[in-house]
Amino acid sequence: MRSLALLLVMALAATGCARFDDRLDDPFTPAPGPGMGAAPPSTPPGSPPPSPTPRSGQPEPTPESGPCVDPDPAVIATCLDPAVAVAGVGQRALVAQSSGRVTIVSVDAQPEEFGRVDVRGGRVAAVAPSPDFAQDRLVYLLVVGDGPSRVDRLARGDAPRTVTELAPADSGGMAFVDGVLTVGVGPELVRFPGFTGIGRATEPEVVARNLGGIRALCTHERDLYLSAVTDRGAVVRTADRVVWTWPDQRDAGGCAATADSLALALPDAERADVLPLAGGAARGQPTQLAQGRYGRLTGLAVIGEGLLLAGTTNKLGGSPVPTDDRAVLLPESGGGADARV
Question: Which pTM was predicted?
Answer without folding.
Answer: 0.81
